[in-house]
Amino acid sequence: MSKSIDYEGLELGVSHEPLELDRMAAIRDISGNMARQARRELLLFGRTIESNLYDQQPFLDAVRRLALSRPTLSVRILVFDPRDAAASGHRLVELARHLTSRIGIRSVDENDRDRLDAFLIADERGIVHRRFADTMAAIADFNNPLEARKLRTDFNQIWERGTPDTELRRLYL
Fold it and tell me: How would you classify residue 89: left for phi > 0, otherwise alpha for psi between -120 and 50, otherwise beta?
């Protein structure tokens, strides 16, 4: 069971207490808090862009703030097929459509689709990692640079092999 933790009191890059999470609400709250504290980069990997975790106003506000505060691609999302999220009106996809130079979404290459996990990385420090993407069992840590760098290296390799989905781009006429 998830411990009763004051998620708001956890500080990115400072708090180093791995938390075992087993509820969607806990993962959602921790992810939103971590995203809100990110100052440089937010990376998201999973089979889908899960609405119950990432189509929530606090998370969207954090992504928007980070994207607008950085002149570069500061938010990157890798999923097996982002079109499902786009078709369902996922607000994170809509935000990415408006901020194309700051939020990137790519489809995972066929050769990388054997990964079973899902994760969020904030500023090469904080992680929320589910070993199995189809469960709500996760480990969260606000200050684990070693694991965050390892996952970021994996993410970057998959990102390079991934492809931008042209259907996600909005055409402004």
Answer: left
Q: If 0-12 CB within 10 Å is exposed, 13-18 middle and 19+ buried, where does residue 111 land?
A: exposed
Contacts with 163 (C-beta within 8 Å, 6 or more apart), sequence order? 106, 107, 109
For residues 158 and 109, the answer to whether their CB atoms sit within 8 Å is: yes
Q: Which DSSP letter does residue 111 get?
A: G
CATH node for 17-166: 3.30.870.10
Domain ranges in the chain?
17-166
Amino acid at 6: D
* Sheet bearing 163-164, strands edge to edge: 19-21, 138-141, 126-130, 118-122, 42-46, 75-79, 103-107, 163-164
User: For the chain, what is the total number of helices (H) and then of strands (E)?
Assistant: 6, 8
The single-letter code of the amino acid at 135 is T
Mean pLDDT by 10 residues, the chain (173 residues): 62 90 95 96 95 94 96 93 81 91 94 96 97 95 97 98 74 40
